DNA sequence: ATGCCTTGTCGCACAAGA
């Protein structure tokens, strides 16, 4: 079973590219972020034509997440628990049934947090605290559980071409990195780093200043797996070539393969 | 030091992204 995550930067602008990638990569489950669409306007039909079930949690203009799955999506939960006043659509979770039992997926778009000094950075940290609390709860269920998405965190210096350029950025603050570690330290395995320790393993290249051409990238899209998911883990990949397509997102898909 | 692009918005320039 192949499970992917991708920040598509707008479903309306990206629909053709996303459909092309789905035909090529054929993930069983895909977690999409930054759909930038309300639920009513999300284009279900082209995805259903490719055999996918669709669940969305969107809002007007910004943010928004979606789950695509070849098998039915069950027990869908929208929003990250812990703050009823949070109106930003950044989390959706659902399960799929497999021959060996249910697998649960959390699709997340973690707040960017810039600029430092604004209310956005404490919002990011508060959101991460809620994610840690929620993951803790899910891990107690001892089932295959994955948290996939755009974490907006550069975990380590090796995860940026020019780490010195990110020292004043919310993505690379000690608090952001510490909370990401606190999340993995609950007992979640970070898929890509367990596949490769290679430098220049990136998932995002800015649209500006020829970042893609210079390979000036960062690794901020991550897949974390519970022990029960890690037991079935058989491989991972980053579909880097998509960044070179016409009208690309600034992020590229990241995926894992699980047995059965 | 800042913008450099890209997207969405009841556009008529701006916010947000990272």
Could you describe the 3D structure shown?
It is a single chain. With 260 residues, this protein is an alpha+beta fold. Helices cover 23% and strands 27% of the residues. It is built from six helices and 14 strands. It has helices at residues 11-25, 44-49, 120-139, 174-184, 191-195, 227-230, and strands at 2-7, 29-33, 53-57, 65-69, 74-78, 91-98, 101-109, 145-150, 189-190, 204-205, 217-218, 221-225, 233-238, 254-258. The protein has a six-stranded mixed β-sheet with strand order 3-4-2-1-14-13. A six-stranded mixed β-sheet has the order 5-6-7-8-12-9. Strands 10-11 form a two-stranded antiparallel sheet. α3 (120-139) packs parallel to α4 (174-184). The protein binds one DNA strand of 18 nucleotides through residues 9-10, 12-13, 34, 36-37, 60-62, 112-114, 152, 166, 169-171, 204, 206-211, 218, 220, 247, 249-250.
Summarize the model shown.
By secondary structure, the chain is of the alpha+beta class. It contains six helices and 14 strands.
What's the gyration radius in Å? 17 Å
* Low-pLDDT residue intervals, each spanning 5 or more residues: none
Q: Can you write the helix and strand succession as a string?
A: EHEHEEEEEHEHEHEEEHEE
Q: Indicate the percent of residues in helices.
A: 10-25%
Cα shape: globular
The overall pLDDT, averaged over residues, is 97
What proportion of the residues form beta strands (DSSP E)?
A: 25-35%
Task: Briefly note the structural class of the backbone.
Answer: alpha+beta
Distance between the termini: 6 Å
Strands of the largest sheet, in order across it?
3-4-2-1-14-13
Q: What kind of sheet is the major sheet?
A: 6 strands, mixed
Number of DSSP-assigned strands: 14
């Amino acid at each position: 079973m192949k499970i992917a995550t991708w920040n598509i930067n707008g479903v309306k602008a990206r629909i053709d590219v996303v459909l092309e990638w789905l035909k090529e990569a054929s993930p069983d489950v895909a977690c999409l972020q930054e759909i930038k669409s309300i639920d009513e306007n999300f284009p279900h039909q082209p995805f259903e034509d490719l055999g996918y079930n669709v669940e969305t949690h969107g809002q007007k203009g910004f943010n928004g997440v979606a789950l695509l799955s070849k098998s039915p999506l069950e027990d869908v939960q929208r929003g990250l628990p812990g703050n009823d006043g949070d109106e930003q659509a950044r989390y959706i979770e659902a399960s799929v049934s497999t021959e060996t039992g249910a697998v649960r997926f959390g699709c997340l778009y973690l707040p960017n947090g810039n600029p430092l000094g604004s209310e956005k950075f404490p919002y990011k940290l508060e959101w991460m605290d809620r994610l840690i609390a929620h993951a803790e709860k899910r891990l107690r269920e001892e089932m295959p559980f994955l948290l996939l998405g755009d974490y907006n965190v550069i975990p380590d210096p090796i995860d940026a071409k020019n780490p010195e350029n990110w020292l004043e950025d919310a993505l690379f603050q000690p608090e952001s990195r510490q909370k990401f570690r606190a999340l993995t330290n609950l007992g979640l395995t970070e898929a890509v780093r367990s596949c490769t320790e290679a430098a220049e393993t990136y998932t995002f290249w800015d649209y500006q200043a020829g970042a893609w051409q210079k390979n000036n990238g960062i690794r901020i899209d991550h897949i974390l797996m519970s022990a029960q998911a890690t037991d079935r883990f058989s491989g991972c990949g980053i579909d880097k070539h998509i960044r070179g397509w016409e009208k690309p997102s600034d992020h590229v898909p990241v995926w894992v393969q699980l047995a059965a």
